[in-house]
Write a structure and sequence with these properties.
Elements: E1 3-8, H1 16-23, E2 29-32, E3 41-45, E4 48-52, E5 65-68, E6 73-74, H2 76-88, E7 97-100, E8 104-105, H3 109-121, H4 133-141, H5 148-151, H6 154-176, H7 183-197, E9 201-202, H8 204-214, E10 218-221, H9 247-254, E11 263-269, E12 272-274, H10 287-294, E13 310-312, E14 314-315, H11 316-326, E15 330-334, E16 344-353, E17 356-358, H12 365-370, E18 372-379, H13 396-409, E19 413-417, E20 425-427
Parallel strand pairs: 1-10, 1-11, 2-5, 2-10, 5-7, 6-8, 7-9, 11-15, 14-16, 15-19
Antiparallel strand pairs: 3-4, 12-13, 16-17, 16-18, 19-20
Bound molecules: guanosine-5'-diphosphate, 6-O-phosphoryl inosine monophosphate and magnesium ion.
């Protein structure tokens, strides 16, 4: 039975939560392996709408095991709040949600530094989610982080904090002019978090290993999208996850070997969106952009911050690049229904740049900001697709649009999504 990684292929919010929720029906174990609560994964089901920030999207099936792997940064207050919210809405969590003892902890100075950094950057601000995620990953790599296992040992946590709190206070006060934090309060608060999280904490890598040995189907749920990746993305307007949310990061973020991964499903929207700042060659600042944002159910507003998403045509140059670096086996194309109203559609197949043409994504952010999209036009279908469940029942122009995206990307579409609800899907070829 396979290990499948589900990754975002654009700038995040492609519908990974929705796709994982659908595929989880046939999986045994679902796990998050990177990022933090900057992620917002929406799942719509019979219990209502859920925006998950840390808990994997398999949680709605009572028989599935859900893991948060070592690659994830945990804000304990957010995780405990999410667990409470799920339980209050009738979703069982205890005994089947587990958290890695090696995961890093988001500390109270991280959001303060994130927000103060953004202010210092001024016009060049990244447009972060302000949750402290960048500074938390920075501390991880600079070996000034706290891990979940540390929260469970009151004495050694005190020792760690006796160095970290004064160190971070010096940064907060001297660099940013922000009020310092009190060591005893941080220690008391985080020991309390430790005791409340203790029932969930374990070596999650062992649980995945055991599941794989049994032949269970394992779904690894990526966060963000490849264009936000620290190495591959539109640097410096990217996120800071280490390991990366790319498929290659899944093995590291779960503590399994890369040879264990059988299938990489790249999730792409049928057009492009981006929240936060940075270049986006196909962005539409006109009424078509507004239509993409507001048209169809579930308008384009950030699941974490509520910010309006920037919208534009499908960028096949970027999509081909992200399919390649993720080693995508197949794609899931979401929000196809949002295009239902449009008379004409465009796909960007190359960029015009500095007097020439290119079909690769420039590494330089400044060059990408100068790149002008070269479009191919396709006729729209102007019919409601939200009730379609078989590929052959889609309007001909919708099928042609999907086929053209597959060609330009060089990857086959195995799944289409035509609405936010679980059953609003069109399977094309098997994934599980
Ligand atoms: P994620 O971060 O990749 O999980 O995606 P988000 O949840 O942040 O954003 C995707 C949004 O699109 C959510 O509001 C989903 O409910 C919604 N959605 C997912 N698939 C579809 C679809 O096929 N059609 C429509 N109209 N909405 C969808
Ligand atoms: P999901 O998993 C969309 C963006 C932020 C900002 C940049 C850096 O829901 O797809 P950060 O707070 O991470 O330091 O912000 O990354 N960003 C996302 N955009 N979806 C996400 O996650 C994102 N996670 C981070 O908007 O541009
Ligand atoms: Mg999201």
């Amino acid at each position: 039975m396979p290990v499948i990684v589900v990754v975002g292929g654009q700038w995040g919010d492609e519908g990974k939560g929705r796709v994982v929720d659908l595929l989880a029906q046939k999986a045994h174990l679902v796990a998050r392996y990177s990022a933090a609560n900057n992620a917002g994964h929406t799942v719509v089901n019979e219990l209502g709408e859920f925006k998950l920030h840390l808990v994997p999207a398999g949680i709605f099936y009572p028989d599935k095991v859900c893991l948060i792997g070592n690659g994830v940064v945990i804000d304990p207050a957010v995780l405990l709040g999410e667990i409470e919210d799920l339980e209050s809405r009738g979703v069982s969590v205890r005994g089947r949600l587990f958290l890695s003892d090696r995961a890093q902890v988001l500390m109270p100075w991280h959001p303060l530094i994130d927000q103060a950094d953004e202010e210092l950057r001024g016009k060049g601000a990244i447009g972060t989610t302000g949750r402290g995620v960048g500074p938390a990953f920075t501390d991880k790599v600079s070996r000034a982080g706290v891990r979940i296992a540390d929260l469970l040992d009151k004495e050694s946590l005190l020792q760690q904090l006796s160095f970290l709190v004064p160190y971070k206070n010096a940064v907060l006060e001297k660099l940013y002019g922000v009020k310092p934090l009190a060591l005893d309060r941080v220690h008391a608060e985080y020991t309390d978090f430790g005791s409340r999280l203790a029932p969930f904490v374990t070596d999650t890598a062992e649980l995945v290993e055991e599941a794989m040995a049994r032949g269970d189907t394992v779904l690894l749920e990526g966060a963000q999208g490849a264009l936000l990746d620290l190495d591959a993305g539109t640097y410096e307007y990217v996120t800071s996850s280490v390991p990366s949310s790319l498929a290659g990061g899944a093995a590291i973020g779960m503590g399994i070997g890369p040879t264990k991964i059988d299938f990489v499903l790249g999730v792409y929207k049928a057009y492009n969106t981006r929240v936060g700042n940075g270049p986006m060659p196909t962005e539409l600042l006109d009424e078509t952009g507004d239509l993409l944002r507001e048209g169809g159910p579930r308008p384009e507003y950030g699941a974490t911050t509520g910010r309006p998403r920037r919208c534009g045509w499908f960028d096949a140059v970027a999509a081909r690049y992200t399919a390649r670096i993720n080693g995508v086996t197949a794609i899931a194309l979401t929000r196809l229904d949002v295009l239902d109203q449009l008379p004409t559609l465009k796909i960007c197949t190359a960029y015009r740049l500095d007097g020439g043409m290119t079909d690769s994504l420039p590494a330089s952010g400044a060059a990408l900001a100068r790149a002008k999209p070269v479009y191919e036009e396709l006729p729209g279908w102007q019919k409601d697709t939200s009730g379609v469940r078989r590929f052959q029942d889609l309007p001909e122009n919708a099928r042609a649009y999907v086929r053209r995206i597959e060609e330009t990307m060089g990857a086959p579409a195995h799944l289409l999504s035509v609405g936010p609800e679980r059953e609003q899907a069109i399977p094309i070829k098997p994934i599980l």
